[in-house]
Amino acid sequence: EVNGHAALRSELERLNPAELLVSEDLVLPKYISAISGLRRRSPWEFSFDTATRLLTQHFKTQDLSGFGCANLNLAIAAAGCLLQYVVATHRSAVPHILSLKVERHDEYLFLDATTQRNLELLTNLSGGSECTLASIYDHTATPMGGRLLRRWLQRPLRNQQILNARQGTIAAILVEQHWYKLHAILRAIGDIERIVTRIALRNARPRDLVQLRHALQILPQLQEQLASLQTNKIQELKNNIGTFPELVDLLQRAIVENPPVTIRDGGVLAAGYHSELDALRNLSSHAGQYLVDLEAREKQRTGLSTLKVGYNRVHGYYIEISRLQSQAAPADYMRRQTLKGAERYITPELKEFEDKVLSSQSRALALEKTLYDELQELVSQKLHALQNCAAALAELDALNNLAERAATLNLTRPQFSNDNELTIIGGRHPVVEQNIIQPFVPNDTKIDATRRMLIITGPNMGGKSTYMRQTALITILAYIGSFVPAQQAVLGQIDRVFTRIGSADDLAGGRSTFMVEMTETANILHNATANSLVLIDEIGRGTSTFDGLSLAWAAAEYLAKSVKALTLFATHYFELTELPQLLPHVVNVHLDAVEHGEEIVFLHAVQDGPANKSYGLQVAQLAGMPRAVILAAKEKLQQLETAEKSTNDFGLSERVFLAAETPFSNESSVLKTKQLEEHAVIAELLSIDPDNLSPKEALEILYGLLGRVRKS
Q: Which of 224, 239, 396, 604 could form a disulfide with 441 if both were Cys (CB 3.0 to 4.6 A apart)?
């Protein structure tokens, strides 16, 4: 489904794979060869025939049509290579891999890597996890529930039937605050998903089995709690979770209460689990009493008061006598070791006992390891049921978490429609709201057939970016089945979310800030559809004023006329507020501020119509710019505004591209373009301060202006 390098690069950035398997005979572009987890594999590993044979053998099927991938030859080849790689790295079979799943883009609300980064879903712009959507919405009780919720945030669903089922489950859990009790039960269960995987690979640790035993013991209590929640989804989860009384009984009989970390030194299997193991252990465990009795007998027989019986790892069991009394040692004592003040001996009886005990210890340890492997084999017979149980517990945890978040954060159940619309009443930014002291100002968003594009203007720091991001985040939350931070929300059939927000260069890739901005914008213009939600914030800041204005105007017009996406377009170019007069379905909204003397107060409320002022100097003053610089800026602003007024006789429509005469309308506009260039030159001439130019700079500007006039 990935067509072209641009789409492939975007998909790799979105997936961020730890390892990437590539055929040795492929010549790779730089963006792939730079991936740290790149693994070159032999070309035959990507053979379709080999892959089909391996996959059908692994899944024990005649063909792969049951997995929905019968005609996806490249996908099958990749899956076959991956299976070979996993088996080779684990050096064992992988019975826990039970199925293939085909994922198609049209099943999900597509979020490319840029969108996920700009919206700070899982990581913030600094690479941390603070102040992200996940940090606010992931209060799951289990690690597996948290992993599932993060996958949902990265790949929201478009299937309204599944989304409505999730919403219904959340609503049912909210009744009588069931989420509180469910959270406590789930927290005690732990991460059985990972434990089941380790059991399947036969490398589970003893404490994994104890944790599994503990989790399975809790399931009846969980089932009892779920019995009062009567929804189809809850019933489905309840059935998949199940109970495992036979497995609990087996693990109770087999594993001690607090086993050691590994099986290496034994002591894991419980007494009474295996009779032969018990006998071998008894022989070893009673050795101490035997040695005490032997020492007493030998003292009485020999009359040697310094005689004692001991053991060390090097020499084994021994009888020790002081050097003074060693001359009286019996004839059956065979010298084993000489010390500075004592002699150590062995007797035939002690040697026979030593052989028996040491043999029993090694035999007991070997037998225990064998029995432990057999125990993992017995548990793995329930592998499929345990995997279903773990998956259902993870989903229950994620949904219960969303119910708790809905109650705690005052969220509302959104609605879905088949119309191409997005209506949010009283929407709030889900992250900002939780990280500020003062009350968050809610805002409405309405985009439909009559309002396809919102041109958003207003002062810096006024909240334009926050308003745009909250619209996208509310959409994403709705499409994972969550309740949303709004009084009301109705969402149509949205297929993708695109963002062009913020600015950063790509030094490693050799791209400037402006180049990154243009690349992201180009991706939107090429791939957005009429059902896409597009957020564009400040196009054209990284180049000259007229270049930036031209690009912003043309991009907005293309989105409005050709793509017709649901668009929020924030800009500092006030000229773009003319677009609603020239294009249907484009409207102006703004965020306002009020001045009190030299102070400015941001209202953060979205209102209809264009803004009348940018308040840039006031924001600079708030940022701590030196007063002398602010005064100089005010003086320069007055000069520029005077120069602007002198060119206003031409009219705005002659200073920007008219919508009816752009390339998108297929009409020639040579005369208007020439007038535009001439008036642009006049405006630039009026803005020049010749007293502050060197001769060289003046000459360069002059030649540049002459070239532009001649060209036009």
A: 604
